[in-house]
């Protein structure tokens, strides 16, 4: 099985480049494509005219249709799938998933696709493995980590910053979004190598893992 994985930012790509091989092993292939933010689903589900705009949801109708066309030409013994990974943020999960399926269902041909949504943010997947966070950041604040409820809507990246960044989320926020993005990339690079993908306690990470495994096993 070949996986085309779409993520909303560079920090997500850095994490998945490390985590995906831990899940699917060496018998399957994948590419992770990062975008410059999540954007929003366009009201008109036709092809987006601004193809150079690398914002994930704005481009999703065009991307899924393109993958549908490409995958339809693959040999039967070379199956492929699209995996969309993005943050829920403050959206309604049910409504957001329905909007994503509306885009997919408008494709002809329709690519094999899974929508994997980190709740509330991608940092939830790091916080699903407290041991990995502590391995990467031995001085992390244990009470802050232990107070986190998996996949809760609580300001997830801020919670991780409060645990591992000097001065916490307040100090990091004061540095601006560019510094926040750089710090998130560091979290991806430092925490992901320590993560045990089989025991992660984030339900949304478990869903991502199971979707990859289900597709990989079906292709065998």
Helix % is 40-55%
Average pLDDT for all residues:
91
Strand percentage lies at 5-15%
Low-confidence stretches: 45-52
Number of helices: 10
What does this protein structure show overall?
By secondary structure, the protein is an alpha/beta fold. It has 2 domains: 2-121 and 201-219, Rossmann fold (3-Layer(aba) Sandwich); 123-194, no CATH class. The chain is 50% helix and 12% strand. It is built from 10 helices and 4 strands. It has helices at 10-24, 56-71, 93-105, 123-127, 130-136, 142-146, 156-164, 168-174, 177-191, 203-219; strands spanning 2-7, 29-34, 80-87, 113-118. It has a 4-stranded parallel sheet with strand order 2-1-3-4, sandwiched between helices. Helix 3 links the parallel strand 3 (80-87) and strand 4 (113-118). Helix 1 (10-24) packs parallel to helix 9 (177-191) and helix 7 packs across helix 8 (168-174). The longest helix is centred in the last third of the chain and has 17 residues, at 203-219. The radius of gyration is 18 Å and the shape is globular. The model is unreliable at 45-52 (pLDDT under 50).
Question: Could you provide a short overview of the structure?
Answer:
The protein is α/β, with parallel strands linked by helices and 220 residues long. The chain contains 10 helices and 4 strands; from the N terminus they run E-H-E-H-E-H-E-H-H-H-H-H-H-H. The longest helix has 17 residues, at 203-219.
